[in-house]
Design a protein that fits this description.
The chain is α/β, with parallel strands linked by helices. Helix content is 42%, strand content 25%. The chain has a single domain, classed as STAS domain (Transcription Regulator spoIIAA). It comes from Hyalangium rubrum.
């Protein structure tokens, strides 16, 4: 498993890249790291999650995903974009989990497409 979390304070965006499976024992630590990066952002910050090579989350991973989404909402986040590529099963799991707590995310097939969407270069 590889998780890379990068906050671009200038663009007010958090980039998250997940490769492989986040084990249930590691899920809380990953969520805590993402939430710490949110603390560096201004209200309206955007989040981009690259899930192209991520595997579906376990039970605790889903709990932590909900916590991250709810915390982002509390901190007045802006848009969410998920880079899904061909990771259909993982993308569906994230979409279902988001829908349960009424959070909408845009989908993109590359980081470049996600950036263009957030920069207002795409409809």
């Amino acid at each position: 498993m590889v998780v890379d979390i990068h906050a671009d304070v200038g663009k007010n965006r958090i980039f998250i890249r997940i490769e492989g499976q986040i084990d249930d024992t590691e899920a809380k630590g990953v969520a805590d790291s993402i939430i710490r990066e949110m603390d560096r952002m201004r209200p309206g910050f955007d989040m981009v999650s690259d899930l192209r090579t991520a595997e579906p989350l376990g039970t605790e991973g889903v709990v932590q995903l909900k916590r991250v989404i709810e915390t982002a909402r509390e901190k007045k986040s802006g848009r969410t974009v998920r880079i899904v590529g061909k990771a259909a099963q993982t993308a569906l799991q994230f979409a279902r989990t988001s829908k349960e707590i009424r959070h909408e995310a845009y989908l993109a097939f590359s980081r470049e497409e996600a950036e263009r969407l957030l920069d207002g270069e795409m409809p």
